[in-house]
Amino acid sequence: MSTVTQTQHNESTGRIDDVDWALAERELDSFGYATTTTLLNASECKALISMFGDDSAFRSHIDMARYRFGEGEYKYFADPLPPAVAKLREGVYPRLAGIANRWNERLGIDQRFPESLDRFLAFCHGKKQRKPTPLVLRYEAGGYNCLHQDLYGEVSFPLQMTIVLSDRGVDYTGGQFLLVQQRPRAQSRGDAIELERGQAIIFPNRYRPVRGTRGDYRVNVRHGVSRIVSGVRFSLGIIFHDAK
């Protein structure tokens, strides 16, 4: 590993270590999402944005309007993932695996997740889910993302992460991250979260446990992006399971 690469690796690991993961778990349990300190610096964000025009870096391109997903576009990275994305995916996964296992235990789900991303991806590949799922999303003014869940096969990891790559208030306005939690026999609850450049939000992929008077129950969760008022907004989505 070169000196530059080693320095970048140490900086990335340090930023992940700087996150208060105990607080993140409490926020996930209390609110259904958690935000982090900065995980990507400005130059790393700009580098990922600049890759969007390089089709060779991606395996798939989706025009959201064509599928009525919203207004915008996104591209799934091809293997090998860019180093910054791979480091984040590998470094954050072990921090979330323990939370995911505790959630499954609370919900009476037998599946337990291994401590390392490599082992989890090997399990995905054994289920014929071999396509990488990290992606970059791009929205222009008027763009938005409908509420949805990112499920790509039989295997899914209960948590995922989005990092905004653009500078809010400078590159774009509007475009809040939306999270809607559908409680059983009750009206849904919504949150609109604003993120700074390089900051991440961690949220449920599909559902989460909530403590009730008779124990834990399951709350269904969907996410999206509100309308971009002006400018262009890029974001990085990190999903930990691979796709078919």
**Helical residues, percent:** 25-40%
CATH homology group: q2cbj1_9rhob like domain
Low-confidence stretches: 1-7
Cα-atom Rg, whole angstroms? 17 Å
Summarize model confidence as the mean pLDDT: 94
CATH class wording: Mainly Beta
Under the CATH scheme, the architecture is Sandwich
**Biggest pleated sheet:** 8 strands, antiparallel
Oligomeric assembly: single chain
How many strands appear in the DSSP assignment?
14
SS content category: alpha+beta
Helix/strand order, N-terminal first: HHEHEEEHHEEEEEEEEEE
Number of domain units: 1
CATH topology: Jelly Rolls
Q: In words, what does this structure look like?
A:
The strands form two sheets. Strands 1, 2, 4, 5, 7, 8, 11 and 14 form an eight-stranded antiparallel sheet that branches. Strands 3, 6, 9, 10, 12 and 13 form a six-stranded antiparallel sheet that branches. The protein has helices at 3-18, 21-31, 42-51, 83-107, 117-126, and strands spanning 34-38, 58-63, 70-71, 73-77, 135-140, 144-148, 159-164, 172-174, 177-182, 189-193, 199-204, 207-212, 215-225, 228-239. Helices cover 30% and strands 34% of the residues. It contains five helices and 14 strands.
